[in-house]
UniProtKB/TrEMBL annotation:
Protein name: Four helix bundle protein
Gene3D superfamilies xrefs: 23S rRNA-intervening sequence (1.20.1440.60)
Biological source species: Salegentibacter agarivorans
Alphabetized InterPro entries for the sequence: 23S_rRNA-intervening_sequence, 23S_rRNA_IVS_sf
SUPFAM superfamilies from the UniProt entry: IVS-encoded protein-like
Pfam families in the record: 23S_rRNA_IVP (PF05635)
Taxonomy, superkingdom: Bacteria
């Protein structure tokens, strides 16, 4: 077991992706900056925040899993928002389309960690 959420690969990956998404979203045109830009920032933040909050409740296995599932759902949400922005703002988002793949990889890691907690975590 990790001694801190900071030791989790999914935490570090999601935090790094959050910083990339946040700065990229601020380059969107004004008409998307406050709409999809805000959505993509919030869902990206939710991925990492739910990992931290779940870890804080790790003593309660069901709570930990619940927050990891929220994190996974937010990860799926950001992929959707990013794909919308790729279509709507290809000049800005296109050069960064590899971030979708990074979030897909992160989603798989979060899912694996959920399975690990389900099978191995002691309440």
């Amino acid at each position: 077991m990790s001694s801190s959420y900071r030791d989790l690969d999914i935490y570090n990956a999601s935090l790094n992706l959050f910083f990339k998404i946040h700065s990229l979203s601020l380059k969107l045109p004004k008409y998307e900056l406050y709409e999809l830009g805000s959505q993509i920032r919030r869902s990206s933040d939710s991925v990492v925040t739910n990992i931290v909050e779940g870890y804080g409740r790790k003593r309660y296995k069901a709570d930990f899993i619940k927050f990891l599932i929220y994190s996974h759902a937010s990860n799926d949400e950001i992929i959707l928002h990013f794909n919308k922005l790729l279509h709507l703002c290809p000049a800005i988002m296109g050069p960064h389309q590899d971030l979708v793949k990074d979030y897909e990889i992160l989603g798989a890691k979060i899912n694996k960690f959920i399975q690990y907690v389900e099978l191995n975590w002691k309440s």
